[in-house]
Amino acid sequence: MVGRVAWRWLGVVWLSLTAWAAPAPVELDGEALLKDVDLLEQAVRALHPGLYRYLSEEELNHSLSQLRSELARGASQTDTFLALARWSAQLQCGHTYPNFWNQDEAVQAQLFDQHLSLPFTFRLQQGQMVIDQLALADSGLQQGDRVQLINQMPLTVVWSALLPLMAADGANQAARWQQLELSGYGRYEPFDVYFPLLFGAEQYRLQLVDGRQVTVAGMSREDRQAQLAPQPEVWALSFPHPQTALLRLSSFTTWNFDFDWRAFLNRAFTEISQSDAEHLVLDIRGNGGGTTEVVEVLLRYLIQQPVQLTPWQQRLRFSSVPDTLLPHLSSWQDDWRQLGQQAEPGDDGYYILPPTLGPMLTPNPNRFAGRISLLVDGANRSATLLLAQQLKQWGRATLVGRTTGGNLRGINGGQILFLRLPNSGLELDLPLIGYFGPDTAENDGLAPDIRVAASMPGEADGDLAAALAATDEAGL
């Protein structure tokens, strides 16, 4: 929950705002909300494979008791959504949260689409908000300005309210901070959703680190994006140095692509092989994952001999889904209904899926044989964490940048169910497969071989510079 200091500041800010025409809240009955919590508890206890990765039974019971206390007297749909986000974040699972994209259209319209946000995008550096792109002309702001206060409120208070809402795996704080950066290109980004719900206003009075004070009008996401530079291509190949190829892959969500990604990779590696490039910089910063099929195809261009992917142990909490839950569950496909049929009972209430070796990958004839640098950051989880782990394990790439997202102890995912809570009208993503690494692994993401502070707006790309410098030192 938001701490007392944060709530005190919320009150101060609210009273100091110019009249903000907030959408009329949808009020929900307390008794009905408690029934939703009962359904939520039944579902996570029956299905969630990572429920006890980081929580004890006592801690789980306490979190559910807090959630019930928060909703027992009734709450608005907005406050219920925030309470659900705070509760699910306590599970420390990057795939368990009220998914913005999976909410009903009416919920999206009410909670996400009527609010004004900041008229600029930003990066974060040690908790400081560094302005990147501006959507207002003659605002008095410029790229690189650092914001200290928003409507008289210190940013430490903003982060103390928003960080507990971020879904991430285990103790990986880098992944939580990464989510709070604002690119301005996504329809729904965590800051754009949560900040207006807690601190929304028609105007934002900013105090900058250099002492200047600037007041700017809030903007809709659509109006702001229309003023930003065109969004970079999802995948792109360039040659920043005569002997270096830079392959930028910002997403593996191929179902959203408007191009043939397999053909793109074939063309890219053909062009690389026909060039003088001896060094490949593979840039996956900001890539939160997607399909592992991309990883398997991509790795074939990077390996020199047949290799096998190293799988984590896969665990379920169920052999069959309880009938009482079925009316409230859905997914992209129906194969989750048979998921537990081949699982065998294991320890501590788990069902273990049969151990399977990862696919054997053979090198692509068009493979790259030179040195590889992999640029990583806190966004990398799921499929991109798998890519980074395998390349590091095989000694095939030097990781440059910052600690990845995800967790070396494993993650939950594979199959995702959409749990719909009937009385609040809200949805929660619920992963079904637990991927378990060694218990002795560090409770964090994958650390880079060369750690580089994130470059701020207006600065040169420090990660790329470090990758090039390491190659020069190696004499390549």
TrEMBL record:
Q: Which GO terms describe its biological process?
A: proteolysis; signal transduction
Pfam families from the UniProt entry: Peptidase_S41
Please give the InterPro entries that the UniProt record associates with this protein.
Answer: ClpP/crotonase-like_dom_sf, Tail-specific_protease
- Entry's Gene Ontology molecular function annotations: endopeptidase activity; serine-type peptidase activity
What region holds the Tail specific protease domain?
A: 244-452
Domain of life the protein comes from: Bacteria
SUPFAM superfamilies in the record, alphabetically?
A: ClpP/crotonase
GO CC, one annotated term = outer membrane-bounded periplasmic space
Please state what the protein is called. Answer: Peptidase family S41
